[in-house]
Amino acid sequence: MDWPGIRTEERAWVPRGHSGSRADRMLRTIEVAVPPMIADLPYDPIGSVARSHEKAVIAVARLEAGYGAHLAPLADFLLRSESIASSKIEHIDAGLRAFGKALAGGKASAEARSQLAAVHALIAMVDAAGYGPITLDLVLRSHAVLMAPDYYQAQDAGMVRDVQNWIGGSDHSPLHAMYIPPPPEFVAPLMDDLIRFSNRIDLPVLAQAAIAHAQFESIHPFVDGNGRIGRALISAILRRRGLTERITVPLASAMLADTTRYFAKLDDYRSGDVDSFVDYVAEGTSHAAAASEESARVLASLPALWNERVRPRANSADAAILDRLLDSPVLDADAAQQITWTSDASTYRALGRLTEVGILEPLSTAKRNQIWAAVDVLAELDALSAAIGRRTLAE
Question: What range(s) does the Fido domain occupy (predicted)?
């Protein structure tokens, strides 16, 4: 389908001080990209793209109506999976155990805190989109949540950029950059236009989400955090349009499987090939939804397997923890006691027994402020991302 590509403009570049190579310091002009306004553009996929789009929408609807409706812990599980994979695309990977410590409020690394912030930013985007229109204020607030753990980036958090940025190339100038987004004076009108596009209800839902994401990445409105907020926008639009009500599609794992292809598809969009990017997102969504159903089946089977392994007494502290472990797969002693409603000693004994049989695993070696995680649930987070990756690469 016809879609306007970006246009380019030559702009003067003033070197920033004396840093970088001689080539950085000698750079005087750059070519910036200016994305088109899209708020009122029509889009209807046809042929193979339409079939791919329909297949993906059906897969998401089936996941939502099936396990999404009847397995409450699946919602948090998929949301965390999406956030972790989205962070990994930006080379932020603390590891699941470090992420678990952050999730339980324990002392955690900067990368783990950043991954947890991505979870909270995604929650902010998706929850708000379920109750009202997507607004620029929502995007800005979510960005502030995302960047809060980073002391150096916090000053730019929640604000569109007022400087020129670029992707790839030198750290000191846009020399050899893969993509140079629009100058800062274009950002506000382009974002207003994108917000209008994101709230339309006359477009195929998944195509709308895909296009909004590609447009967001082309605008690159923030100094940092564009990828994670841009991918969160996909989930927000799916929630806004009612395709999802509980679940979050872990699409980022499909993108993570081959980031070179992901970035190439964004370039296709920028050249005007909108169908290529819509088809790419639709295929990734189908893979993510199918693999999520497999993970949902695994999660649903875990309580019975745990109870068979432990055979806890009825109404015991062990039984109480096992009954809530899918909902709270990472917990400290205080959280466990709120579940068991027993003494400290009884709660610790239950945690010890569940650790001995391999259901729980301590996330640190310290005796104080101990945090435990359900091994099987953490393993399934890794398994889901790997399964989506295998499906994506097998195309």
Answer: 134-283
